[in-house]
Specification:
By secondary structure, this protein is mainly alpha-helical. The chain contains ten helices and two strands, in the order H-H-E-E-H-H-H-H-H-H-H-H. Pfam families: TPR_19.
Length: 202
Amino acid sequence: MAKDKMKTTEGRRPSYHERRKRRQKIIFAVMAAVLSIGLLGSSVVWVLGNTAPARENGQPVSPGQSLADWQKQAAAHPNDAAIAAGLARAYDEAGKREQAVASYEKALRLDPQNGVLRTNLALNYFLLGQYDQAATQLQEEIRLHPDDTQAYYYYGQVLGYGKHDYQAAVRQLEKYVQLVKTGSQVDSARQMITQWQKLSTR
């Protein structure tokens, strides 16, 4: 009897809230992966490529150094955006999300036009559940760089998965699809658009 009851419970269809919670976990995992191996990596390269890299004992700072090394460099070069960005990445790789946010905020103050830094900051806010802050940063990125297609893509997800503003999320993703046109992310965006159009009419 107990076994039959267990089978019934295990075989039931997940509720909408359970499915949404599962999707959010998947999105968080994807965002974390993007931060650890995607945008974060390019952000350090981008920043280091656009500012003179700091040096220690005459040697350039390496993006692959340890968290302790980045902390030491940040203390020695408090006004270096590249160092602040490298420290943020090191914090991310160590799973220290709040410290990463603080370092990205500092890097962005030093280099306010850097769209990759701003997007990384927004994604960290998203992963911390600070959706309003994430949305604000992505809005600013779109204002500064209206051709930054990834900003529309992430902004749509923050609005949809974070703030549950499905109509606004659809608008941002439609803009992304319009700009990019083809690719696996475009396919994902179209799927989200279809899903959120249904939810926005409920």
